[in-house]
C-alpha cells in the first residue's frame, strides 16, 4: 500500500483539500477525527489528563472542557507537550490500525490527513508528503475569523506547530492555497492526476 501524508497548518485549507481528494475517490484517514475518537474510546486518556492537569478542565458533570483546555495548552508549550505525550501514542496506534484495515480491504493508496504529521515524526512512515501552504498573515486572519480568537491567541495556535515554511523541506508536493480557489483547484487536479498513476 502507498501511504500519502497530507499536512499543513491550522487554517491552511488542508481540510478542504482533504475533502476534494475524498470526493475524487481516495480513501482518507483523518487524524483530527481519530484524535477526538480516542478520548471516548480510551477512557484512561482523560483519567491521565485529570491526574496531570487537575480538575479545572472538567465541569461539574465530569465532562472535559475541550475549548478551555485547548486555549491553555496552546498558551503554554510545556503543557501542550505533556498532553501530547499522553494522547499521541493512542492516535498513532489507531492510525496504524486504520491503515492495516484498509490494506486488508485491498486499498492500494491511502491518504493520511494530519496537521502534525511532521512534528510527530509520522512523515517517516509515508511514501509521499503533500503540504498545503499559505502565507502566515492569511493564516492568522483565517483563524481569528473561524475561531473568534484574538491576534495573540491565533499566533499561539500557529506557533504550536512547525512553521509551514519549515514543512516545505519535507514536502514532495506543495499546494499554495494563498490565492483564489480556482488556482487551488488547478493544483488539486495536478495532484489527483499524480496520485492516480499509483492506483
From TrEMBL:
PROSITE patterns tied to this protein: DPCK
Signal peptide (from-to): none
Biological processes per GO annotation: coenzyme A biosynthetic process
Gene3D superfamilies the UniProt entry points to: P-loop containing nucleotide triphosphate hydrolases (3.40.50.300)
One cellular component (GO) term of this entry: cytoplasm
Enzyme Commission designation: 2.7.1.24
Keyword check for Lipid metabolism: no
Reactions catalysed: 3'-dephospho-CoA + ATP = ADP + CoA + H(+)
UniProtKB keywords: ATP-binding, Coenzyme A biosynthesis, Cytoplasm, Kinase, Nucleotide-binding, Transferase
Family of the protein in this entry: Belongs to the CoaE family.
Subcellular localization: Cytoplasm
GO molecular-function terms, A-Z: ATP binding; dephospho-CoA kinase activity
Principal subcellular localisation of the protein: cytoplasm
Domain of life per record: Bacteria
Broad class of enzyme this protein falls into: transferase
The UniProt record lists the keyword Aminoacyl-tRNA synthetase: no
SUPFAM superfamilies in the cross-refs: P-loop containing nucleoside triphosphate hydrolases
Residues noted as binding ATP in the record, renumbered to the chain: 11-16
Official protein name in the record: Dephospho-CoA kinase
Pathway: Cofactor biosynthesis; coenzyme A biosynthesis; CoA from (R)-pantothenate: step 5/5
Known function: Catalyzes the phosphorylation of the 3'-hydroxyl group of dephosphocoenzyme A to form coenzyme A.
Amino acid at each position: 500500500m502507498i501511504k500519502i501524508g497530507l499536512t499543513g497548518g491550522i487554517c491552511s485549507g488542508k481540510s478542504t483539500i482533504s475533502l476534494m481528494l475524498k470526493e475524487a475517490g481516495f480513501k482518507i484517514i483523518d487524524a483530527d477525527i481519530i484524535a477526538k475518537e480516542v478520548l471516548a474510546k480510551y477512557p484512561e486518556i482523560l483519567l491521565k489528563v485529570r491526574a496531570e492537569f487537575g480538575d479545572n478542565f472538567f465541569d461539574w458533570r465530569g465532562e472535559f472542557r475541550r475549548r478551555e483546555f485547548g486555549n491553555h495548552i496552546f498558551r503554554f508549550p510545556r503543557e501542550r507537550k505533556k498532553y501530547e505525550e499522553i494522547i499521541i501514542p493512542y492516535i498513532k496506534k489507531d492510525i496504524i490500525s486504520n491503515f492495516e484495515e484498509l490494506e486488508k480491504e485491498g486499498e492500494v493508496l491511502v491518504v493520511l490527513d494530519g496537521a502534525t504529521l511532521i512534528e510527530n515524526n509520522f512523515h517517516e512512515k509515508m511514501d509521499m508528503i503533500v503540504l498545503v501552504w499559505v502565507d502566515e498573515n492569511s493564516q492568522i486572519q483565517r483563524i481569528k475569523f473561524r475561531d473568534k480568537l484574538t491576534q495573540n491567541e491565533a499566533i499561539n495556535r500557529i506557533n504550536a506547530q512547525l512553521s509551514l515554511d519549515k514543512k516545505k523541506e519535507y514536502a514532495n508536493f506543495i499546494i499554495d492555497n494563498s490565492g483564489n480557489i480556482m488556482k487551488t483547484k488547478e493544483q488539486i487536479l495536478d495532484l489527483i492526476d499524480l496520485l492516480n498513476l499509483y492506483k
